[in-house]
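Chapter review: from sequence to fold.
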Amino acid sequence: MLPLAKNALSRLGVRSIQQTMARQNHPKWASDFHDKYGNAVLASGATFCVAVWAYTATQIGIEWNLSPVCKVTPKEWREQ
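The token string follows.
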């Protein structure tokens, strides 16, 4: 690789890292929607999801096919 191209690529990598770090350290002037309402939207969405699943699991009559162990007694064997 030519020394000029090698030098340009090495500087490009360092510069992009420096720009990324500067972007991360830059303070925001004003809060946006996610800063104001992000946690409330997340909590209300999770609550809604749990409520819908709780209603579905308890109110619409699904047969859950639970294990019959210790609940079913065998019938007597009949000789034919």
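Two observations follow directly from the output. The helical segments are 3-25, 33-59. Residues 10 and 53 are 54 Å apart (CA to CA).
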